[in-house]
Amino acid sequence: MPSITTDDGVRLHCEDTGSGTPIVFVHEFAGDGRSWEPQVRHFARRYRCVTYNARGYPPSDVPEDFERYSQERVREDLRCVIEALGLQLPHVVGLSMGAFATLHFGMRYCAQGAPARARSLTLAGCGTGAHPAAYATFQADARALADGIARHGMEHFAATYGHGPARLQLRAKDPRGFAEYARQLAGHSATGSANTMRGYQARRPCLYELTQEMARIDVPVLVMAGDEDEPCLEPSLLIKRTVAKAGLALLPRSGHAINLEEPALFNRLLEDFLHQVESGRWPARDAASRPSIWGPAGKP
């Protein structure tokens, strides 16, 4: 399988399947490139599908210094994948941690006044820890989780964090799929996961302080979330209200890993979005219908 080398010298493992308009899938913290298998199997029939493992996720390189993991660096790793593979205006689809990377890529490389480097952005399960009421606690929890991974290893982490409140929906709906997810999570690098948690998750900026940057995104955006993924509900609304070309889809009775939990519905929503974008039928929201970023009631 191909690999690319980032501009700071880290090798990232990639998989490239199918042909046509490219889609780049960016995985979550508890997953890796394999997490997108239900999407690659579906979309590779008509699209060129690219998945890759983030730094810290073997067979990608695992830098030992957590300072080499950050929101900016993960954003630039996505850019490096797109450039190294020669992808022209790909659709970019991210889940959770990967959705944060995709959103920051959009703020930097798909803003008004400059040529866009992506055709569209899909942000699924985006926003855990982003709300101002939860932000400081999330940072502290992420540092504690990093310490726990280093101390107890990935099997313990998968058996605890991996069974969190927004994962139980997958376990109930698809026990075999949940077992596969948990097994893959337990096999991740403890060093890479701890460094990702400490260097990236614990230091990413609060989305509620980035609304001006988000408002400048000038490509179509699809926001998706499970309606039982509580930490992502308010941030998903924030993105919808802030980005003029954003649409929001909530998947009923669903948790965090919605691409695995409801693959048919996820694929259908994503495919419809891509078709609308490619036919030029995903315009900006009418300015007369746009509320404040905090909704009709104003700031809390």
UniProtKB/TrEMBL annotation:
<dbReference type="GO" id="GO:0016020">
    <property type="term" value="C:membrane"/>
</dbReference>
<dbReference type="GO" id="GO:0016787">
    <property type="term" value="F:hydrolase activity"/>
</dbReference>
<feature type="domain" description="AB hydrolase-1">
    <location>
        <begin position="22"/>
        <end position="230"/>
    </location>
</feature>
<dbReference type="InterPro" id="IPR029058">
    <property type="entry name" value="AB_hydrolase_fold"/>
</dbReference>
<protein>
    <submittedName>
        <fullName>Alpha/beta hydrolase</fullName>
    </submittedName>
</protein>
<keyword id="KW-0378">Hydrolase</keyword>
<dbReference type="Pfam" id="PF00561">
    <property type="entry name" value="Abhydrolase_1"/>
</dbReference>
<dbReference type="InterPro" id="IPR050266">
    <property type="entry name" value="AB_hydrolase_sf"/>
</dbReference>
<dbReference type="InterPro" id="IPR000073">
    <property type="entry name" value="AB_hydrolase_1"/>
</dbReference>
